[in-house]
Structures are given as C-alpha cells and as structure tokens.
C-alpha cells in the first residue's frame, strides 16, 4: 500500500479513492477525485489553477522550501521489514509533521501580518461610512453633540483664562 | 470513423458534431499531451515523425495509417495535427495559431508532471537508497574508482 500524491492538486490519495489514468507511453496519472480528473481532461495547467498546491507554492502563498520536506521521500525499492525501524519511522513522522505544520503556520502568519493592519483600517472606514445601518442618523448626531460638550466647556475655560 | 447509424453520412459530419463513446475515448487516448509535445519539439524532427508513421504515444504504428488524415504523412509536430496534403501542412505552418504555439512551446518551462506534484505536496526528491552494485562490470567500476 502506498499513499500517492494527486497529479493535479498534490493532495494525498488514500486507498480506495480516485482514478488512475495510464497513457500510451505508460506514464500513470493519479487523481484524488473527479474534480482533478475533469480538470486534467480539460487540459488545464495546475500551475495556473488557484486551488492547487503547485499554484500556491509558485505564487508564494505557502512554504515552498524547508528541511522538513526532505523527510518525506519516495523510494521505489522495497525496504526489508524491521520492527525497530517501523517504530522509529512512525515516531519520526509524527514529529516531522508537527514541526512542518508549525512552520507552515508561521509562514501564513507572517504573510497575513500586513493584511491584518489593512483590515483594521478598512473596518474603521466602513464604520464611519455605514454606521447609519446600525443607528439612526438623528441618534448619531445627538451622541456627537454630547461628546462635544466637555470639549466646548474646556475651550470656553481656556478662552476665559487667556482673557 | 466507426459508429455511424445506417443511412447517416460518414463524410462531412453531423451538424451537431456528435461523437460516439468509442470515438470520444479514442480521441482522449490518442491526443498527444502538452508534456509529450514539449519534448517532441526539442528532439530532432526525424525522431518524432519520419513522414511515414505518426508519434501517437509509443505504440508502434503501421506505415500509412488509415485512421489518420493523409495516412499520417503530413504531421505538424508542435500542434500535434495531421494534414491531408503537404500543401495543407505548409499553409498551416504560416498561420498565427501555429506560430503562437511554437513560441509558447519554446519559451515556457517544462510542463507539470508527477515529480512537480510530489514536490508541491511537501515531498522531497525521490531517494532509492544506495546503488546496488552487483556483477563484474560493477566490480570493475568500483576498482576503477
């Protein structure tokens, strides 16, 4: 049993899922689901289809180069069964997946940093513009008048003192 | 073309351009994919098409293939199309879609393949372990090293 990667979207294909297409020249194309298969038949280029891993790596949306990626490799030669090796491998897989996930999350956070600030600014602008959807204009005006009262009083005092 | 109904014209085609399931599947299996064409364009043309048989995958094709326009003699490598006559092929090569395709094939990077898909899926380069050296030739090579 082997877990393959989908030719189109690079997701893992578990046993019992997807379709394999074998071409005249004996190259095998494995697809995880009908969506990927149909896109392939349409002759779409995965590098240009936004939801595929190939696109995301090329566009810099995801962590593309990392040492953890070197931990998962394809080997076309069978390994002789060794109980210790199996145990160690399973533990290693868990640890490596954990580290990889953390690194990918960190990459995402960094990428979205400036986006958060932009979002906050956009939210403020929206609030200014569209607060009438939440409160009636008369009510807003009344609130603003109330807020200006202490400022007006402070100004009046200052003017009095200056005089 | 197989699969026509009795009384239907074989030449000219149905105006709704219907294909039978068999025709559709044959079409799917026999078109040359972009990654094959990308390699074809970079090989010497005689290796791809020698004026007798077509490159249709790697299945050995008989000379003068009846199923293909012009018996497979006139083939445009970048476009993967057969033409009925040499004149037809020549006039095709002067056309814009052909020129665009040639330019595209020569300027774009190698098309997506399984190796790219694996790398994008967070795998490393394939590792088949240390090379197994057996036999006299290998032993001689080791000695030379």
Features:
heterodimer, A: 163 residues, mainly alpha, 3 domains, two-stranded antiparallel ribbon, B: 145 residues, Putative ribosome biogenesis protein RLP24 (chain A), ribosome biogenesis (chain A), structural constituent of ribosome (chain A), TRASH_dom (chain A)
Summary of the model, kept short:
Chain A has helices at 34-41, 53-58, 83-130, 137-162; strands spanning 4-5, 12-13, 19-22, 28-31. Chain A is mostly helical and 163 residues long.
Descriptive notes:
The complex is a heterodimer of chains A (163) and B (145). By secondary structure, chain A is mainly α. Chain A folds into 3 domains: 1-62, Ribosomal protein L24 (Ribosomal Protein L24e, Chain: T, Roll), CATH 2.30.170; 63-129; 135-162. Helices cover 54% and strands 7% of the residues of chain A. Chain A contains 4 helices and 4 strands, in the order E-E-E-E-H-H-H-H. Chain A has helices at residues 34-41, 53-58, 83-130, 137-162, and strands at residues 4-5, 12-13, 19-22, 28-31. In chain A, a hairpin with a 6-residue loop joins strand 1 (4-5) and strand 2. The longest helix of chain A has 48 residues, at 83-130. Chain A is elongated and about 95 Å long. The model of chain A has no long low-confidence stretch (mean pLDDT 91). The longest helix of chain B is centred in the C-terminal third of the chain and has 12 residues, at 96-107. The mean pLDDT of chain B is 80. Chain B has a two-stranded antiparallel sheet. In chain B, strand 1 and strand 2 form a beta hairpin. By secondary structure, chain B is mostly helical. Chain B has a domain at 23-116: Double Stranded RNA Binding Domain, CATH 3.30.160. Chain B: One of its GO terms (molecular function) is nucleic acid binding. Chain B: Keywords: Metal-binding, Zinc, Zinc-finger.
